[in-house]
Write a structure and sequence with these properties.
alpha/beta, 7 strands, Rossmann fold, seven-stranded parallel beta sheet, single chain, 8 helices, 248 residues
Length: 248
């Protein structure tokens, strides 16, 4: 029986790359999306071409009831989750003096509270002390957690700092339950997240001079690290944070 992976925010960007590679590596995949139904369904079709099952599941990861419903839908369609990738994330570019509290709360709902709830639901299914077979949780953080982010991006960077601490603490908590936890911190990656702030063209220019390899990263390069962390090759890796930044 194939292992089952849930990837949040998997309709595009890093999430879509992770979902497609997971299918190629032998997983049945739940492709979570919030609004991009057509893009999510295309990712599903790509996974099915590799010979594995996939479903697109609509859920706003910033809403607890949606996350619970997503896991229940995956239980029925694919079976219990064995790997969770907490990828969904949103940005809010603002100077703190101009910040709107409701938008701050929304970023934390998606970027922090969502991973907590998804982890909770995964643990309930993975825990070897509750009859599960163990599993892996990979959180997608950001290198911005280390340096505070691009100008105006403190809100996003701080939410990803929370993910660093969450990863290390959770790994310690669930290690005895047969569950490994790790974090991947991307640097500048060619995704649509820059559409809400500096723009992709500007990100490409910054990457030319701020990385050791002189270029922006690709979503597939993040996916490679994620799938390795979920594999048996990483069976002794937990509580770790992995920078994939081109040396930025």
């Amino acid at each position: 029986m194939s292992k089952v992976m849930i990837v949040t925010g998997a309709a595009r960007g890093i999430g879509a790359a992770v979902a497609r590679l997971a299918g190629a590596k032998g997983y049945d995949v739940a492709v979570n999306y919030t609004r991009s139904k057509e893009k999510a369904e295309q990712v599903v079709k790509d996974i099915e071409k590799s010979g594995h099952r996939a479903v697109a599941v609509q859920a706003d990861v910033g809403v607890e009831d949606d996350v619970v419903r997503m896991f229940e839908a995956v239980d029925k369609a694919l079976g219990p989750v064995s790997a969770l990738v907490n990828n969904a994330g949103i940005d809010y570019e603002t100077a703190i003096e101009d910040m709107k509290l409701d938008r701050l709360k929304r970023v934390y709902a998606v970027n922090v509270f969502g991973p907590f709830v998804a982890a909770r639901e995964s643990i309930r299914r993975m825990s070897t002390k509750k009859g599960g077979k163990g599993g892996t949780i990979v959180n997608i953080g950001s290198i911005s957690a280390r340096y505070g982010g691009l100008p105006g991006d403190v809100v996003y960077a701080s939410s990803k700092g929370a993910i660093d601490a969450f990863t290390m603490g959770l790994a310690r908590e669930v290690g005895p339950l047969g569950i490994r936890v790790a974090c991947v911190r991307p640097g500048l990656i060619r995704t649509e997240i820059f559409d809400s702030n500096i723009g992709l063209d500007r990100a490409i220019e910054i990457a030319k001079t701020s990385t050791m390899v002189g270029r922006i990263g690709e979503p597939e390069e993040i996916a490679n690290m994620v799938l390795w962390l979920c594999s048996d090759e990483a069976s002794y890796v937990t509580g770790t944070i992995h920078d994939v930044t081109g040396g930025r």
